[in-house]
Design a protein that fits this description.
Layout (H helix, E strand, L loop, with lengths): L3 E3 L11 E4 L1 H9 L3 H7 L5 E6 L5 E6 L1 H8 L4 E4 H14 L3 E3 L7 E3 L4 E5 L2 E5 L2 E3 L6 H7 L5 E13 L11 E7 L2 E8 L4 E9 L10 E3 L1 H5 L7 H12 L4 E8 L5 H4 E2 L2 E3 L14 H18 L2 H30 L3 H14 L2 E2 L3 H4 L5
Parallel strand pairs: 1-6, 3-12, 4-19, 10-18
Antiparallel strand pairs: 2-5, 3-4, 7-8, 8-9, 11-14, 11-16, 12-13, 13-14, 15-16, 17-18
Amino acid sequence: MDVTVLEAAKEFGEVGAGIQLGPNAMKVIAALGLEKDVLQMASLPEAIVIADAVSGKPISRMLLGDAVRQKYGQAYVSMHRADLHTILLSAARASGVQLHTHQTLQNYEHSAQYICRRDTNIDQKFDVLVGADGLWSKVRAQMLTDDAPHATGHAAFRALLPAQSVPEALRTPHVRTWWARDVHVVSYPLRGGNLWNLVVLAQMPNSHQEGWSLSAKHQDVMRLFKRTEPPLQALLDAGGAQQNGWNRWNLFDRIPLKAAHMAQGRVALLGDAAHPMLPYLAQGAAMALEDAWTLAQCLSQHDAPQALQAYAQIRAPRTKRVVQTAKRNGQVFHLSGAIAVARDAVLSLKGTSTVGMPWLYGHSVL
């Protein structure tokens, strides 16, 4: 297939912060022949460790590492989003993909035979149009004319820390999370432990401004907590002390699309354009990777309209379940009072085991 990518950014470069790729995502990475490249750039956390943000009391410990690979057939990795972009970009160039930066698709015409790009001084025809242009998708806007994304009342505050800024007690190869009322914290290593990702996710009012990297003050973050255990407090202070400080990302959402709306004729939506999700399951990128692999397989087996319909029928039920699970996780993480005590007791009784959800991590689109 001859593929042309229109990228809105002026240039390809370092963007974003940390990202987690579960075994289901790594199966796609391996099938693309990129597993070795990813593992060279990534970290391999050994467990997910959950604790109470106020007392520091352990709540749960779920094994990753070798246990996950044995159970699900692939690794669970954490890495810098820019490193993943670099690997995928290099592979795309090597395979002959035409990449054009500083371009967006403003308008298109759809016929039974082709898609025609109708922008200023541009007239291009394609067999298929894939809207992989994110939450605020212009392709989706023209294709469906549905409602705009809505603010969820949730926000994320992100910081990147060099390893030496992380308290020594927390400088371990784990995905760590601390739970409190209406807020939780996530931290994990990147680039082999030389860098750490730190995210505070909270339910809060006035979360309507759009943007991936809005500036935020350290006191804005600390107001989210009544108090915190000392190691967590030190970690949060380290985040606020970084030169770039905290970046705020207000979380918007949409109802996931049904198959009939995910693809129409020669146009299909992929990733956040079709099924944006709250980051409480760390599966946004994984779903986009699964989408992409499935779409490629369908296009290799069917004519374009039939291929896009097959893709949508396969992907819509799974992505809906992932979206719903992520949303439910956000509610569970932020509980308080007696119901939070009951949640912690149930999780503690389970003891240490390999991270669950075989329907999610054990799934393979290959």
